[in-house]
């Protein structure tokens, strides 16, 4: 069993990547199968983070809808009969959460995420979400290049397959120096 490590000397933020998602695309059913159990872990982690006043930032695709906004995306996922509705219900953002819409895979590319993190004086990121081998990994790559410390709880990311997710975790641990311990061992 891994030991519990505290991150009190560092300012961290919890990023929830692409979990507010209708999943109405090819392989959406496959991804949902892996994403729902992860959503349950993320909501527990989010609740613990909130108790310690750790900022929560939703980082979501704009899905090519340049005239949309995050609240519209949340409403779409909550009020329509879409595949991702149960996940959106679990992880519904609250009024104190932050949000960033991204045009592509990385949460940093062409977004104000880095400016927000600087404003919040964050130096450690806890990355969660889908897909582990795409948007989480691209965001982790860019965070690493910006010298953020990375925690990527292995039970809080999902990809279309377990193998793809494990490969992404292996890469993020070994190349990006990410801590991939399970979420319950993270202490704030």
Describe the structure.
This protein is of the alpha/beta class and 188 residues long. It has a single domain (5-187), classed as 3-Layer(aba) Sandwich (Rossmann fold), CATH 3.40.50.850. The chain has 6 helices and 8 strands, in the order ββαβααβαβαββαβ. It has helices spanning 28-51, 70-79, 85-90, 113-119, 132-145, 162-174; strands at 5-6, 12-17, 56-61, 98-102, 124-130, 149-151, 157-158, 186-187. The strands form 2 sheets. Strands 2, 3, 4, 5, 6 and 7 form a 6-stranded parallel beta sheet that branches. A two-stranded parallel ribbon has the order 1-8. Strand 5, helix 5 (132-145) and strand 6 (149-151) form a beta-alpha-beta unit. Helix 5 (132-145) runs parallel beside helix 6.
């Amino acid at each position: 069993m891994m030991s519990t490590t505290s991150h009190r000397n560092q300012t961290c933020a919890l990023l929830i990547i692409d979990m507010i998602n209708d999943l109405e695309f090819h392989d959406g059913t496959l991804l949902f199968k892996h994403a729902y159990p992860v959503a349950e872990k993320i909501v527990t982690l989010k609740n613990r983070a909130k108790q310690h006043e750790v900022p929560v930032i939703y980082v979501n695709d704009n899905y090519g809808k340049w005239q949309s906004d995050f609240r519209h995306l949340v409403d779409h996922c909550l009020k329509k009969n879409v595949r991702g509705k149960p996940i959106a219900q679990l992880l519904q953002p609250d009024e104190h959460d932050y949000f960033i819409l991204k045009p592509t895979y990385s949460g940093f590319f062409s977004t104000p995420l880095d400016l927000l993190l600087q404003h919040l004086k964050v130096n450690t990121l806890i990355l969660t979400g889908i897909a582990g081998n795409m948007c989480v990994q691209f965001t982790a790559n860019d965070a690493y290049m910006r010298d953020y410390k990375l925690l990527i709880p292995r039970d809080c990311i999902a990809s279309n397959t377990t193998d793809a997710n494990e490969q992404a975790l292996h890469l993020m641990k070994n190349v990006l120096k990410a801590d991939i311990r399970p979420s319950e061992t993270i202490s704030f």
